[in-house]
Inverse folding.
């Protein structure tokens, strides 16, 4: 692809600074590569109520407290994996959720993993992106240094509220490439009725 690799220092910063600069970069995992078009930043324990680290370190979120540049993969809604890249030095607990992207290589592999999806939708949304790249629980803690390629910055980046969360949604730490068709549609959190 002719693109340079991002160093660990790139990720050793606050997630809300790293997040917009990830747009247009390329993630490589096996045969599939994805150009990131949408991401969300999640902050520090005790400060960001939407972050998995808000209440401190647990066995589930321990990777988020590890060194920057590692993948934090979690299972959600009993059916999907989602992935984040850890930011800040070890012990801090912050990351960027990888929300959407465009498949730039390995299209046939991604199509097979996302059987029946339109090309625009192959990695449109965090769970779909994880499926397209073939990420699962076994990839939790994967070192992404050497797997994130530098790229050309997008012409226009927009920022707005995070999506699909019940607390901290108004924090404008969702970033996306303006007009890109692979960006997921915005959905504010809708409380679910129980019982």
């Amino acid at each position: 692809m002719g693109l340079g690799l991002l160093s660990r220092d790139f990720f050793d910063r606050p997630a809300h600074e790293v997040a917009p600069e990830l747009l247009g970069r390329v993630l490589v995992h096996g045969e599939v590569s994805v150009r990131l078009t949408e991401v969300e930043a999640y902050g520090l324990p005790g400060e960001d109520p939407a972050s998995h680290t808000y209440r401190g370190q647990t066995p589930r979120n321990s990777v988020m407290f590890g060194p920057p540049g590692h993948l934090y993969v979690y299972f959600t809604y009993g059916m999907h994996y989602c992935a984040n890249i850890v930011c800040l030095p070890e012990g801090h607990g912050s990351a960027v959720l990888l929300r959407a992207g465009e498949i730039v290589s390995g299209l046939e592999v991604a199509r097979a993993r996302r059987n029946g999806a339109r090309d625009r939708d192959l990695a449109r949304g965090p769970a779909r992106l994880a499926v397209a790249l073939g990420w699962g629980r076994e990839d939790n803690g994967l070192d992404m240094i050497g797997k994130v390629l530098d790229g050309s910055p997008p012409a226009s980046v927009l920022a707005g509220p995070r999506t699909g969360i019940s607390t901290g949604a108004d924090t404008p730490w969702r970033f996306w490439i303006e007009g890109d068709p692979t960006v997921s549609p915005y959905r504010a959190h809708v409380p679910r009725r129980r019982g």
Summary: The chain is about 15% helix and 25% strand. Confidence is low (pLDDT under 50) at residues 189-195. Helices lie at 8-11, 15-22, 107-113, 126-133.
